[in-house]
Design brief:
Layout lengths: L1 H19 L7 H50 L17 H15 L24
Helix pairs in contact: 1-2
Amino acid sequence: MKKTTWIFFVLLTAVACTACGQGQGDGMGEVMKRAGMNTLMGMGTVFLVLILISIIIYLLGFIGKTQNRKTAAAKKTVEVKPEEEPATEDLSDDFELVAVIAAAIAASENVPADSLVVRSIRRKTSPNQWKNV
């Protein structure tokens, strides 16, 4: 791959350099023709690179799909043993958690922690975590 890229670069440079060379006896029409060729070579190079980048990005989508297939196959072969669910803690009387939350709010609001009162702590769950950002 590197060899073909290098050959393409040398060929492109050679064509561009011959198009931009200016002879001694060239008229204005000849100079404008060379300028037009330089413009077309530059724009053509840019669009070829953009097309190459878009093809690479398109092909990267297949990599994720093949990895998902491999992980799905691995999940099918692994036996899942049901585990015991841990007992849920009652956090309503957790004074340490209340103190940490009050200290964080006091630090962000630049007020003393004694002036804050935490009345309730509720966990907010939403299907889309980015809605709250």
